[in-house]
Design goal:
Structural class: mainly alpha
Number of strands: 0
Shape: elongated
Mean pLDDT: 88
Distance between the termini: 21 Å
Strand content: under 5%
Helix content: 55-70%
Radius of gyration: 24 Å
Largest sheet: none
Low-confidence stretches: none
Order of helices and strands: HHHHHHH
Length: 154
Protein backbone atom coordinates (compact mmCIF):
# COMPACT_ATOMS: atom_id res chain seq x y z
CA UNK A 1 0.00 0.00 0.00
CA UNK A 2 1.37 3.44 -0.92
CA UNK A 3 1.67 5.99 1.86
CA UNK A 4 -1.11 8.55 1.93
CA UNK A 5 0.00 12.01 0.86
CA UNK A 6 -1.12 15.02 2.86
CA UNK A 7 -3.30 17.55 1.06
CA UNK A 8 -1.29 20.74 0.34
CA UNK A 9 -2.95 22.77 3.12
CA UNK A 10 -2.30 20.02 5.67
CA UNK A 11 1.31 19.73 4.48
CA UNK A 12 1.82 23.50 4.95
CA UNK A 13 0.30 23.27 8.43
CA UNK A 14 2.63 20.36 9.29
CA UNK A 15 5.67 22.35 8.11
CA UNK A 16 4.65 25.31 10.29
CA UNK A 17 4.11 23.06 13.32
CA UNK A 18 7.44 21.27 12.87
CA UNK A 19 9.31 24.54 12.33
CA UNK A 20 7.73 25.93 15.51
CA UNK A 21 8.74 22.81 17.43
CA UNK A 22 12.27 23.10 15.98
CA UNK A 23 12.55 26.66 17.28
CA UNK A 24 11.34 25.66 20.76
CA UNK A 25 13.36 22.47 21.10
CA UNK A 26 16.71 22.37 22.76
CA UNK A 27 18.12 18.95 22.10
CA UNK A 28 21.69 18.69 23.35
CA UNK A 29 24.26 16.87 21.29
CA UNK A 30 24.89 13.25 22.21
CA UNK A 31 27.69 12.99 24.78
CA UNK A 32 30.98 11.76 23.31
CA UNK A 33 30.65 8.41 25.09
CA UNK A 34 26.89 8.16 24.48
CA UNK A 35 23.74 8.70 26.51
CA UNK A 36 23.69 5.24 28.08
CA UNK A 37 27.20 5.70 29.45
CA UNK A 38 26.52 9.30 30.56
CA UNK A 39 23.36 8.42 32.48
CA UNK A 40 24.70 5.15 33.85
CA UNK A 41 27.79 6.85 35.28
CA UNK A 42 25.80 9.86 36.54
CA UNK A 43 23.68 7.37 38.50
CA UNK A 44 26.83 5.68 39.84
CA UNK A 45 25.87 2.42 38.17
CA UNK A 46 28.44 -0.11 36.90
CA UNK A 47 28.20 -2.15 33.71
CA UNK A 48 27.39 -5.21 35.82
CA UNK A 49 24.62 -3.43 37.73
CA UNK A 50 22.95 -2.18 34.54
CA UNK A 51 23.45 -5.63 33.03
CA UNK A 52 21.53 -7.22 35.92
CA UNK A 53 18.67 -4.78 35.39
CA UNK A 54 18.65 -5.69 31.69
CA UNK A 55 19.12 -9.43 32.28
CA UNK A 56 22.44 -9.46 30.36
CA UNK A 57 26.13 -9.53 31.22
CA UNK A 58 28.35 -6.49 31.67
CA UNK A 59 29.96 -7.15 28.28
CA UNK A 60 26.55 -6.72 26.64
CA UNK A 61 26.15 -3.35 28.35
CA UNK A 62 29.62 -2.30 27.16
CA UNK A 63 28.58 -3.44 23.68
CA UNK A 64 25.38 -1.35 23.80
CA UNK A 65 27.43 1.68 24.81
CA UNK A 66 30.02 1.09 22.09
CA UNK A 67 27.32 0.54 19.47
CA UNK A 68 25.58 3.76 20.52
CA UNK A 69 28.80 5.72 19.97
CA UNK A 70 29.39 3.94 16.64
CA UNK A 71 25.82 4.68 15.53
CA UNK A 72 24.96 1.01 15.13
CA UNK A 73 22.89 0.43 18.26
CA UNK A 74 19.49 -1.16 17.69
CA UNK A 75 16.57 1.01 18.75
CA UNK A 76 15.13 -1.90 20.75
CA UNK A 77 18.39 -2.23 22.72
CA UNK A 78 18.52 1.50 23.36
CA UNK A 79 14.90 1.49 24.51
CA UNK A 80 15.53 -1.37 26.92
CA UNK A 81 18.64 0.35 28.30
CA UNK A 82 16.74 3.61 28.71
CA UNK A 83 13.98 1.83 30.61
CA UNK A 84 16.50 0.07 32.86
CA UNK A 85 18.03 3.49 33.60
CA UNK A 86 14.62 4.95 34.48
CA UNK A 87 14.53 7.00 31.28
CA UNK A 88 12.25 7.37 28.28
CA UNK A 89 13.75 7.10 24.82
CA UNK A 90 12.80 10.04 22.60
CA UNK A 91 13.84 9.62 19.01
CA UNK A 92 13.94 13.00 17.29
CA UNK A 93 15.14 14.41 14.00
CA UNK A 94 16.07 18.06 14.38
CA UNK A 95 16.16 19.95 11.08
CA UNK A 96 19.35 21.99 10.65
CA UNK A 97 17.27 24.84 9.29
CA UNK A 98 13.56 25.58 8.91
CA UNK A 99 11.69 23.04 6.78
CA UNK A 100 10.01 25.94 4.96
CA UNK A 101 13.47 27.06 3.76
CA UNK A 102 14.31 23.54 2.60
CA UNK A 103 11.03 23.36 0.67
CA UNK A 104 11.56 26.77 -0.92
CA UNK A 105 15.11 25.93 -2.00
CA UNK A 106 13.98 22.66 -3.59
CA UNK A 107 11.05 24.45 -5.25
CA UNK A 108 13.42 27.02 -6.80
CA UNK A 109 15.63 24.22 -8.09
CA UNK A 110 12.62 22.44 -9.63
CA UNK A 111 11.24 25.68 -11.08
CA UNK A 112 14.60 26.46 -12.72
CA UNK A 113 14.73 22.94 -14.20
CA UNK A 114 11.18 23.24 -15.56
CA UNK A 115 11.81 26.63 -17.11
CA UNK A 116 15.01 25.33 -18.68
CA UNK A 117 13.10 22.39 -20.25
CA UNK A 118 10.34 24.71 -21.48
CA UNK A 119 12.91 27.06 -22.97
CA UNK A 120 14.71 24.21 -24.70
CA UNK A 121 11.50 23.13 -26.46
CA UNK A 122 10.20 26.63 -27.08
CA UNK A 123 13.51 27.93 -28.45
CA UNK A 124 12.73 26.17 -31.72
CA UNK A 125 9.55 28.22 -32.00
CA UNK A 126 11.22 31.42 -30.82
CA UNK A 127 8.79 31.64 -27.88
CA UNK A 128 11.03 30.83 -24.95
CA UNK A 129 9.95 31.91 -21.49
CA UNK A 130 12.40 34.43 -20.02
CA UNK A 131 14.59 32.75 -17.41
CA UNK A 132 13.98 35.50 -14.90
CA UNK A 133 14.22 35.16 -11.17
CA UNK A 134 10.62 36.43 -10.94
CA UNK A 135 9.34 33.57 -13.13
CA UNK A 136 11.32 31.08 -11.04
CA UNK A 137 9.99 32.51 -7.76
CA UNK A 138 6.39 32.47 -9.04
CA UNK A 139 6.64 28.86 -10.16
CA UNK A 140 8.47 27.86 -6.94
CA UNK A 141 5.75 29.46 -4.81
CA UNK A 142 3.09 27.59 -6.79
CA UNK A 143 4.94 24.29 -6.37
CA UNK A 144 5.25 24.71 -2.60
CA UNK A 145 1.63 25.80 -2.20
CA UNK A 146 -0.15 23.43 -4.59
CA UNK A 147 2.11 20.47 -5.36
CA UNK A 148 4.74 19.96 -2.64
CA UNK A 149 4.93 16.22 -3.34
CA UNK A 150 6.28 16.93 -6.83
CA UNK A 151 9.31 18.71 -5.43
CA UNK A 152 11.12 15.49 -4.64
CA UNK A 153 10.53 13.63 -7.91
CA UNK A 154 13.82 13.26 -9.73
Amino acid sequence: MRPRKLPPAAARRAVRQLDTARMQAHVPARPSRGWVHAIRTALGMTHAQLGRRLGVGRQSVASIEANEVAGTVRMASLERAADALGCDLRYVLVPRRPLADTLQEQARRKASQRLARVNATQALEASAVPDSSMAIEDLATDLVRERPGELWNE
